[in-house]
Structure formats: C-alpha cells, structure tokens
UniProtKB/TrEMBL annotation:
<keyword id="KW-0677">Repeat</keyword>
<dbReference type="InterPro" id="IPR002885">
    <property type="entry name" value="PPR_rpt"/>
</dbReference>
<dbReference type="Pfam" id="PF20431">
    <property type="entry name" value="E_motif"/>
</dbReference>
<dbReference type="Pfam" id="PF13041">
    <property type="entry name" value="PPR_2"/>
</dbReference>
<dbReference type="GO" id="GO:0009451">
    <property type="term" value="P:RNA modification"/>
</dbReference>
<dbReference type="InterPro" id="IPR046960">
    <property type="entry name" value="PPR_At4g14850-like_plant"/>
</dbReference>
<dbReference type="InterPro" id="IPR046848">
    <property type="entry name" value="E_motif"/>
</dbReference>
<protein>
    <submittedName>
        <fullName>Putative pentatricopeptide</fullName>
    </submittedName>
</protein>
<feature type="repeat" description="PPR">
    <location>
        <begin position="366"/>
        <end position="400"/>
    </location>
</feature>
<dbReference type="GO" id="GO:0003723">
    <property type="term" value="F:RNA binding"/>
</dbReference>
<dbReference type="Pfam" id="PF01535">
    <property type="entry name" value="PPR"/>
</dbReference>
<feature type="repeat" description="PPR">
    <location>
        <begin position="264"/>
        <end position="298"/>
    </location>
</feature>
<dbReference type="InterPro" id="IPR011990">
    <property type="entry name" value="TPR-like_helical_dom_sf"/>
</dbReference>
<feature type="repeat" description="PPR">
    <location>
        <begin position="171"/>
        <end position="201"/>
    </location>
</feature>
<comment type="similarity">
    <text>Belongs to the PPR family. PCMP-E subfamily.</text>
</comment>
<feature type="repeat" description="PPR">
    <location>
        <begin position="202"/>
        <end position="236"/>
    </location>
</feature>
Amino acid sequence: MPSVRVASASIATLLKACKTQFRLEQIHAQIIHKGLEQDHFLITQFICLSNALSSLPYSTAVFRRVNNPSSHLWNSLLKGHCERSSFSATVSLFIRMKREDGAADEYTYPSVVKACAGEGRVREGRAVHGSAVRCGVDGNVFVGTSLVDLYGKCREVVCARKVFDGMCERNVVSWTAMVVGYAGVGDMVGASKVFGEMPERNAVSWNVVISGFVRLGDLGNARRVFEEMPGKDVVSFTTMIDGYAKSGDMASARFLFEQAPVKDIVMWSALISGYAQNGFPNQAVKIFLEMSSRNVEPDEFIMVSLMSACSQVGCLELAEWVDSYLSNSSIDIRQPHVLAALIDMNAKCGNMERATSLFENMPKRDLISYCSMIQGLSIHGRGNQAVALFNRMLSEGLAPDEVAFTVILTACSRSELVEEGRHFFELMRHKYSMVPTPDHYACMVDLLSRSGWLEEAYELLQSMPVEPHAGAWGALLGACKLHCNVEFGELVANRLFVLEPKSAGSYVLLSDIYAAFHRWLDVSVVRNKMQERGLKKIPGISSI
DNA sequence: CTAGGGTTAG
C-alpha cells in the first residue's frame, strides 16, 4: 500500500511543523480521514505533540482508539501524564499498561518513578523499583538516575546511595541527582564530597550545591562556591539573590542583581519579594516600576509581592492601581494566594467594600483571609465589626492560631474593647490551650492600661511566665502619662531604665508625668540623669 | 525500517 505510506510520511511532516492546538486538531481529522488511526508511529508522534499543545483527555481519547498499543505509545502517554497530571493518574495508567500486556521497558520507568518522586510517594516508588528490576531494566542509566532522584527527594539518602553505587554507568545527571539527595537533607558535607568526586560538572550541579548552602542559611559557603563557579547562569544568580533576600541582607542581594548579566522574571521576583518582606515596600514598588519600564510582564508571584508591599504602605491610590492592573492582566485572581494578597491589600489600604466583596465571594473562607479582613477593620477603627467577624470565624469552625489572636487583641486594643479583649485572651488560654506570646501580653497590657486599668496591666506584666519585651512596659508607661498616674509611672519607668538604658523615651515620659503634677524638682532630677547617661531627646518625637 | 526517558532557582 504505497499510497498509505506516502500519506503517513506527509502527515509526519505536518506534525513536525505543527505549533497550535487548532492545527493539531486539523491534522487529527486528516489522520482519521485517511484511515491512519492504527499507525503506531504516527500516533506516537501525535500524542507527544498533543501532550505539549493540548490536553491529556485529548491524548487519551486518541490513544484509546488504537488496538494493541505498542510500548512506544504507552510510554508517550505515560510521559504526558507524568508531566501534566497527578501521581495517581500516572501510576494507575502504569498499572493498566501492565494489565493490558503492554511491555514495560527502560523508557517506561523514568516517567513512573518521576511521578512518585514528585509527590514523595516512596512506598509506591519502591514497588515500581521492584518492577523495574523484574523487567531487567534497572541497569539502564536513565532508570537508575530516576531512582536515585526518587530516593533522594524522599529523603532516603542511604537508598539513593545504594542505587547510585550499584549503577554500572553514570553520567553528570546521575551524579547531580546524588548531590541533590544529600543537599535535600541538609548534609552539605556529603553533598560537597560527591560534588568533589564528580568526573564532570555542569551548571545544574553547581547550582544544586549553592542552593543547598543557601537553604541552610549558610550564605558564606554558598557565596564561596558561587564565586568559584565557571559560567554562572541566571539560576546561580537568582539562588544567591534569593538567599540574601531571605536572610535580610538586601544590600548583597541588590549588588548581585546589578552584577547579573541576564535578568529574568524569577530574578526580578526574588528582589521585589525581598524588599517587600524585609520592610522596604517603597523599594519593592520602585523595582517593580523599573521592571515594567523594561517591558518585563509581571507574573502572579511578582504581583503577590507587590500587593504585600502595598499593604505595608497602606496607600489606597496605589492599591486601586494594582487591583485594576491585576484585573486587566491574564493572571487568574481566583488562585488562593493571589486572592488572599488582594483581600489583604484592599483591607489594609482602606477599600473595605472591595475587600468584603472578594471575601464574601470566596468559595470557602480561610483563616488567612479572615485575619486580613479583621485587621482591615481594626486598622480603620471598626473594632466592633472586627469582633463580630472573629466570632463568625469561630462559628464557621475555623481554629484561630497565634497570629489570629494577635490580630483580634490588637483590634480590641485599638478600639478600647476591654471586655472583649479579656474574653479573647481567656479563650486563647483555656479553650484553645495556647501559651500567650510576649506579643499577646503586650496587646493586653496596651488595652488594659489605655483604658485606665493600670493596676491590672501592671499585675499582668508581673505575672508573665516569659520575659516581656520593652514595648509592653513602654505602652504601660505611656498609659501612666495619659492617666496621670505617678505611682505606677515611677515603678514602670524604673523597670524601663534597666531594660532599655539607652532609650530616652522612658525618661521623657516620666519627666512629663512629674511635670503634670508640677513636681519640678523631680523633673530636673530625671533630666539630669538623662544627661549623665548621654541621652538626648530626639527632636520631632519629643515630649508631646 | 522510522520514535520515546533522568538533575537546579521565586
């Protein structure tokens, strides 16, 4: 049938040039029209392309129509599942393959093993390993390497090493997978040793070692390896930049960013999120604008960082601009972390209407978004609504965590809701059996003392099982001034002089309290003490 | 007869 062969070859040519799903479907129609649905060679090529361009159901539908599919066909469908679908779908396809007499070969296992590795399913992985041994393909480099990767990713370094040592042939990828295994469990001694023994290295091998040190927070060793590395690529730079950003060293992060010859979206993202998370929201926004001016399209990660920066600044105009920018982009705002950031930004910047409508339209409201909303209400002085929302959260059966209690106690404190604050503090300790942190105590002290319960606040501070931070004492001293209480004022100020000998604030507050009672002699004593210790009032935030 | 597989950064 020479005409069929010609048709098959010409469709293969069409497939090589095919770049869109629409075109793929046209070619599919031709395959059916010409009666080539059983052509294994052609269908294999078709499925590979369909995996990349189209959807798995489409690949599967085409596959189903083939009688007695060849190993090549099974393998290409398995690869599609392992890249685009879940662990269970891949493994059940593998099981179906074995049941339907598909002959598994050395091309079958890497996909199945990778599916196991991707979701940390080491038990199933071991079974697949056994199956590979029974098929006699465990000596293959690709199979062996995927197994080293599997055990390494599942933190079973001893097993990974056993497979690695048993391999009769290894290449740079096999060696790198072994380094990944050691680095993954934080064993950088082991990782460095294997790295040192590698007969050849590529950029990936170097980057694995660098990121291993970075993950341990060992920026010194990471930087040393980075400097030694020949041909640093965009990943090497990004790994270092992200490491510095996460350790709070934005100066080094920025320096390497400027040094990098190529900047991709992940690198921009690392810098922007670094600035946002280390409390430099204005810098984050500035870098974002610089990125935009170079025509780099932001992705969801960058937008989340930008929204976090915006929340910190609390600027409504900026928030509105970001919100509409996001809504006009192709980014799906229904993604949980994007939506959470969007609600948080709108709530903190004062657009409670927008925040509320996003919040109420969520399919299921979670703790994070509740906290954003409560904090938004709190910032804008709507304490009673914050309390009501917190109660609604409890009635929905969500269990508050430490952060949630900090948020609600702060809300109570801002709106001077003493009874509610006491209630939540008790709830936290007794119903949820949580140990309050110094932050929680600080909120309570602030709430009680500002509402005039100076003695109770003082007793709470004294009764704390952990050391309070100076902020709590400072809040109490501020309240002593507010309520003109000399007795507690002296007590608290003397504690603060010990806790924070270098801070002028407490001296100033105490002298203000004396001044309110016209005790000018005491005023001058405090001022002199302050001068003796070389402290100056900072102009601008002085005695007002 | 032709073809298919493994490692790194937010």
